[in-house]
Amino acid sequence: MSARAETIALHEGPLRLLWRTIPGRIGLVLVLFFVAMAVTAPVLSPFDPLANDWMAVLQPPSRAHPLGTDELGRDVLSRLLWGAQSPLVAAFGSVAVALAVGVPLGMLAGYAGGAVDAVISRLTDTLLAIPGIMLAIALALFLGGSLFNATLAISVAAIPAFIRLSRARTLQVMAEPYVEAARSVGVRTVRLLFVHVFPNLVPPIIVQATLAMAVAVIAEASLSFLGLGRPPPAPSWGSMLTVGKDYIANAPWLSIWPGLCIFLVTVGFSLLGDGLRQSLDRR
Amino acid sequence: MGVLGKIGSILATLFLLSVVVFSLQLLLPGDPATVLAGEDRSPETIAAIRERFGLDQPLPVQYVRWLGNAVQGDLGISMRFNQPVVALVLSKLPVTFQLATMALVIAILLGVTAGVFAAVYRGTAVDQTLTIVSVAGFSIPNFWLGILMIMVVSVQWGLLPPSGYVSPLVDPWQSFRAMIMPAFVLGSGLAAILMRHTRSAMIEALGTDYVRTALAKGIPRRRIILRHALRNALVPVITLGALEFGQLLGGSILTEYVFSVPGIGKLLVDSVYNRDYPVVQAVVLCSGAIYIALNLLADLAHAALDPRVRGGAA
Predict the structure, then answer these.
(1) A253 contacts A259 by C-beta, under 8 angstroms
(2) According to the model, what pLDDT value does residue B314 have?
(3) In angstroms, what CA-CA distances link A226 with A27, A147, A235, A272?
(4) A120 — contact with chain B (CB < 8 Å)?
(5) Which of A251, B25, B85, B257 would staple A247 via disulfide (CB 3.0–4.6 Å)?
(6) Residues near A241 by Cβ (< 8 Å), separated by ≥ 6?
């Protein structure tokens, strides 16, 4: 399917396109479920996620605590609900930054060519040479552990993929006759890039963005797992797993629920990407 | 791209990699000498670090000095182990290499087999189930899968050791038993990716004229799938697998940590916990250089296999 046809397909509305495929539907439902969970945590949470209860340490699931309690007697369900905020903030935040930096750089490399392209492409190769999660860990360590820094670190690791995609797509679109026509009637470079080229970059970029969000959720959980995310005692799924790891034998519920949530959000974003790609391919 | 162009591009990437790794220390909040001194913050130590890294010099001078040392294999001293970081990283590399190789073999075996089945039974329940499993394999965090496997395989069933490492040179069987679970965890994500690629490559191969001709000649289906279609479908899949080997180094970080495998991944995590910055820089630099070298090897292998690439046509 051509770049133009995909762009036209997207005009139908991304939600309608997503709903057409089964992976898209499941992905949308999963992601919306966890977004709702993060937003409504203050209302739905049965306990204060930070409140220690020394009389209820490491309790298995019960009526009072449906998902049990942790090593400080904190309610796991409440921490799980509040913990949905970090991965989602990291996913949306890091992809927004990666888009804002990666897409213009990729378009510039594709349009300008020559030395500009060479410099941007070598920088992209360099960042791609370092495994994404390793780069994120190193950056988060040197910047200092916080959700903001973790999001920034994840975004740096996500940028190269957007540069490559935008560059390749820009090269493809620049060869189209309508771009040639626009150029020949004297359309200025900035206008050419943003009005004629950019709209045709949107469909593959949206697919890449949803897949990057899936990776970002795992990256945020990994950084929190290593103590490089939101600092304790704030709840995050990754740091809940760090505690769970020490109680594998006698309190498995501490590991099961946060891991399951990370898994389901990641599945949600992956299926969202798959669904969108399938809908765009099918047309 | 010609040979000279390729070498130039690799050198440029290595140069930029060194700039990125060097720049990491610029991100440190506050005075880097104080942070690098760790717990020993005596004025003498801080002055020695400032002198050693030339922190009172302009940045380009600092970089050239750092690069000069790096080229000679000196990336500093580990603050925790008090030994040269390069020696430390090199001593851990064989363990990670063993883990990543086992993970790659598992990923290829599982991914390619599942991909062939999904393609042969395209559109059936087998295909759909395998596709769902591949989405799960791609989405499951390594460290959670590791924790779950320890919970079930080691704690519940008592089949395999939950952690630890035995060198294959000391006891190959125990080494295999200790590494098989972490290797499976590390390889699962890659298996999912390989499955998807094998599936689409096989579907394409099964629709080609030579497969149709072979079918018309009455050659058994199993033989066509294995000897004709799979052989062609495997080339891009194996290339992808080789390239992903570098990414396995990234995946090994948390896997090694969960299973206490003493490779560079666990070294990185321990260094993160101990704020051992020079080790983290060395691990990042080393991983990047390995990835660049693997890329070059993949290119060379591709050129050796495919004459079209050699002339610069592709």
Answers:
(1) no
(2) 38
(3) 28, 13, 14, 28
(4) no
(5) A251
(6) A221, A225, A255, A258, A259, A262, B143, B144, B147
> Mean pLDDT lowest for which of A171-185, B24-38, B242-256?
B24-38
- Chain A residues with CB under 8 Å of B138 CB are 270
Q: Name the closest residue on chain B to residue A214, using Cα atoms.
A: B139
Q: How far is B128 from chain A (nearest CA, A)?
A: 11
Give the pLDDT confidence of A50-59 residue by residue, as tens digits.
888 888 889 9
Token pair recorded at residue B150: 């320890």
Strand partners, A75: A69
Residues 144-163 of A with CB under 8 A from B: 144
Measured in angstroms, the CA of B190 and the nearest CA of chain A are apart by 14
C-alpha A19: how far from chain center: 20
Q: What pLDDT is stored for residue A104 in this prediction?
A: 95
Out of A129, A142, A225, the one facing B292 most closely (by C-beta) is A129
Distance of CA A78 to the CA centre of its chain: 23
pLDDT band for position A42 (cuts 50, 70, 90): very high
State what percent of residues in chain A have pLDDT above 70.
Answer: 94
Dump strand ranges (E) for B28-141.
none
Gap between the Cα atoms of B279 and B38, Å rounded: 13
| Mean pLDDT, rounded, of chain B | 86
Please give the C-alpha separations between residue A254 and each of A50, A76, A217, B66, B155, in angstroms, as whole numbers: 16, 7, 19, 45, 15
Q: Are the Cβ atoms of A126 and B288 closer than 8 angstroms?
A: yes
Please tell me the distance in Å from B92's CA to the nearest CA on chain A. 16
Nearest by Cα to B121 from B113, B43, A119, A150 = B113
Positive or negative, the CA dihedral B43, B46, B48, B54 is negative
What digits encode the pLDDT tens for the residues B91-139? 999 999 999 999 999 999 999 999 999 999 988 899 989 988 898 888 8
Answer whether A133 sits within 8 Å of B275, measured CB to CB. no
Handedness of CA B303, B307, B310, B314 (dihedral sign): negative
Mean pLDDT estimate for chain A: 90
3-state secondary structure of B168: coil
What are the residues whose beta carbons fall under 8 Å from the beta carbon of B189, sequence distance 6 or more?
Answer: B137, B138, B140, B142, B251
Find which of B35, B96, B143 to mutate to test the A interface (most A CBs within 10 Å of its CB): B143
Provide the CATH number for the domain formed by A3-42+73-282 in this structure.
1.10.3720.10
Mean pLDDT of the B297-302 span: 75
Token look-up 């360099």 returns: A126
Distance from CA of B43 to the nearest CA of A (A): 23
The interface pTM score, or ipTM, of the predicted complex is 0.86
Q: Are B291 and B299 in contact (CB under 8 A)?
A: no
Q: What is the mean pLDDT of residues B225-230?
A: 83
Contact A221/B151, CB-based, under 8 Å? no
